[in-house]
Amino acid sequence: MPNRLDRETSPYLLQHADNPVDWWPWSPEAFEEARRRNVPVLLSVGYASCHWCHVMAHESFEDERVAAYLNEHFVPVKVDREERPDVDAVYMEAVQAATGQGGWPMTVFLTADAEPFYFGTYFPPEPRHGMPSFHQVLEGVAAAWSDRPDEVAEVAGRIVHDLTQRSLAHGGEGLPGEPELAQALLGLTREYDEKHGGFGGAPKFPPSMIIEFLLRHHARTGAKGALDMAADTCAAMAMGGMYDQLGGGFARYSVDREWVVPHFEKMLYDNALLCRAYAHLWRSTGSELARRVALETADFMVRELRTPEGGFASALDADSEDGAGRHVEGAYYVWTPEQLREVLGDQDAAFAAEHFGVTEQGTFEEGASVLRLARTGTVVDAGRAADVRAKLLAARELRPRPGRDDKVVAAWNGLAIAALAETGAYFGRPDLIERATEAADLLVRVHMGDVARLTRTSKDGRTGGHAGVLEDYGDVAEGFLALAAVTGEGVWLEFAGFLLDIVLQHFTGEGGQLYDTADDAEKLIRRPQDPTDSATPAGWTAAAGALLSYAAYTGSRAHRTAAEGALGVVKALGPRVPRFIGWGLAVAEALLDGPREVAVAGPVGGALHRTALLGRAPGAVVAAGETAGTEFPLLADRPMVGGAPTAYVCRHFVCDAPTTDREALARSLGSSPSGD
Fold this sequence. Notes:
Blueprint: H1 11-15, E1 24-25, H2 28-37, E2 41-46, H3 51-61, H4 64-73, E3 75-80, H5 85-99, E4 106-110, E5 116-120, H6 134-147, H7 149-165, H8 178-191, H9 208-221, H10 224-239, E6 253-254, E7 262-263, E8 266-267, H11 268-285, H12 288-305, E9 313-316, E10 319-321, E11 327-329, H13 337-344, H14 346-356, H15 382-396, E12 404-409, H16 410-426, H17 430-448, E13 457-459, E14 462-463, H18 470-487, H19 490-507, H20 539-554, H21 557-566, H22 568-573, H23 582-593, E15 597-601, H24 607-613, E16 621-625, E17 646-651, E18 654-655, H25 662-668
Parallel strand pairs: 1-3, 2-3, 15-16
Antiparallel strand pairs: 2-4, 4-5, 6-7, 8-9, 9-12, 10-11, 12-13, 13-14, 15-17, 17-18
Helix pairs in contact: 4-6, 9-10, 9-11, 9-23, 11-12, 11-16, 12-16, 13-14, 16-17, 16-18, 17-18, 18-19, 18-20, 19-20, 20-21, 20-23, 24-25
């Protein structure tokens, strides 16, 4: 019999709707039930494409014996971290403080007042590698709750007190300037992996936001080292196993420092951020590799993640069925030499094995290899490689596909809108701009409703009912602003303004601080507040970037002041932990450059407009239209000169002399008119 999760919209929760565990969604009713029964709450947090979440579900939550004990002694609550990032953030902070590490699935035991007192992540079904079994953990917690209630209450109270007493040093005084950005670059240089690209060791995550900072820093200062780190890292990722050499798109991270073996789940946010980063790398260098990867990644998002409603699904699973009917990680993507021969025949299989690094020993598990491009320096027959790739892709399409998390997350769709709009504009792909516009329409129609307050998620056109958090507002506004620049439609500027006004009213604290949840959102044991970028831009830095761009478009002092206040955190953290505030550093580069405001009085999509979009000036905003009207304040009183399309390059609405010359405009924005 289904439990209470069968009425939810989250695919992750729905995966658990038929468990024998009597799951509750996160709700006041669940905690009232724990209080009524005088039992603790088991909070289990994960997400639909999480490999170890699936493992623990199969091992423990589908086990009748474990479920019976769990139901008798606890109120079990299941949370999708992608749907409730606020709940995830608060308790992950407690887990990391208590254990020194975190991850998913996250397992936390709570009192009926939602106070945590015992923590963990994955627990195996039997004792293993010094870890207790999940059943042992349940028995120990139940015994402590029954036999030592005062001790449990004391621990819970102390943990909550420690969490609520933490204060965030957000920079406060002053803005990040040249010294801080130079120190950040030096810090990145020290952590840079000169042999393999990227930063740090294994596991190695795609540093998309750091790449954006490096490209902007190079554009502003001419620092060659910054460009080299960005370009070499992008090349290493694109040629490695983390990039899908057949279908395009990136896996979540590499388990090794050489980019050989990925963790195979594919996330919308990674692909959106990397698509945009590679497009910007092409804009800076004219790299054909960057162009190919940007377009293939855009096509992957549209082909594999687009939903019938026009939005983009969250992720593809790491796991799928292999030839023996087992549900294992990477089965859809890996190849053995024998499988190559079955599809290609002996000669082409030998060519493919050398080209894609497929060995008899294998680079993954059970003799299988992850496809990657070998860096041999030898000349490859491009036509033959394309033919082999097409045949392997067609054969792979016949394999059982990974599952898809169809939930639409507002923030990640905002990132996708920005990436698709710009990639479409750069490479003459109006279909990508159309897909971006359709996703934006969905966000307005379904996620914003009638009051311009965002809901976090939707599925099948139905909202998930959870309030949007700061990253939703910042990333969706960023997407709308990019769409406004590309399409010349001022309505997207207006929608961005609606969202950013909510940020000013409900997410902003004293001295420029920002909070991850609105002041009228559900109250948790701590109001989450994290300015550091991880796999995606922090809500804090995403909002700062959108506020700065909106101020450049409109001349709004209030939005500029809010952006400057938020960027105090970059002054504090940039020199110390640059890897974890990459988007904040990129926004700071835009601030130092102005950012520049480009008004193009002329046809949208025309040569001058395209030249403006290809400008490398950090964070430059572009407004285009043949009639100077009120939709873009930047266009007001800036007409065409002599009846010809005319560009005005400004800072703080003070402009240089207008120009009708593409080359002159390109030079003023640090680029060539063709984008090479």
